[in-house]
Amino acid sequence: MFTIGTSKPVMVIGATGFVAGWIVKDLLEAGAIVHARVRNPDNTDKVEHLLDIARAAPAQLRLFKADLLTLASYAEAMEGCGVTFHTASPFTIYVKDPQNELIDPAVNGTRNVLGQANKTESVWNVSSSIDHNAYSYSKTLAEKKA
Questions:
Q1: What is the DSSP pairing of strand 61-65 with strand 10-13?
Q2: CA 31, 34, 38: angle at the middle one, nearest 5?
Q3: What DSSP line would sit under 120-142, residue for residue?
Q4: Taken in order 144, 69, 93, 35, is the CA torsion positive or negative?
Q5: I need a labelling partner for 95 at 20 to 30 A (CA). Which of 8, 20, 119, 130 fits?
Q6: Is the CA virtual torsion 137, 89, 117, 64 positive or negative?
Q7: Whether pLDDT at 1 is above 60
Q8: d(CA 81, CA 144)
């Protein structure tokens, strides 16, 4: 269980995935408004479990259609969010071309998400430094570089 502020919506990318489903559940139960990015919000087979979770929770779930590989397709869903959980990545066991079917989409999709997050999210750890809480400082620097 984690604690998260609920004053701003929280973005979950890849919301129909197994891990993301648990993140969505915890966020909704904590009272957060969740912006869930899915491939197709109208595909009830893929999103019904999320809708069921939302019906039983005190918070709101909003589904957004976005394509991992389309630049700026996350702009609307990420707008106003304070935190983004990026759990999406193409997944299949049987591939003919791993570079084009898995590796390139995973890397380029992450680049797209981080690019939009850099335009949207601007809260950074400013209390750490090389001399104070160096681990947290190293994580902040690494995240800024990403």
A1: unpaired
A2: 155
A3: H------S--SSSSHHHHHHHHH
A4: positive
A5: 20
A6: negative
A7: no
A8: 18
Residue with tokens 């990318």: 13
Amino acid at 116: Q
DSSP label at residue 52: H
- ∠ CA 13-14-18, nearest 5°, is 130
What share of residues in the chain are helix, strand, coil (percent, to 5)? 45, 10, 45
Q: State the sign of the Cα–Cα–Cα–Cα dihedral 95, 44, 49, 112.
A: positive
pLDDT (0 to 100) of residue 50 = 96
Enter the tokens of residue 38.
């899915």
Whether residue 46 contacts residue 68, with contact meaning beta carbons closer than 8 Å, is answered with: no
pTM summary value: 0.79
> What are residue 10's phi and psi, to 5 degrees?
-120, 130
**What pLDDT band is residue 65 in, cutting at 50, 70 and 90?**
very high
Task: State residue 124's pLDDT score.
Answer: 77
Q: Return the residue matching tokens 């969010």.
A: 81
CA distance 15 to 51: 11
- CA 100 → CA 66, 84, 86, 103, distances in Å? 20, 26, 20, 6
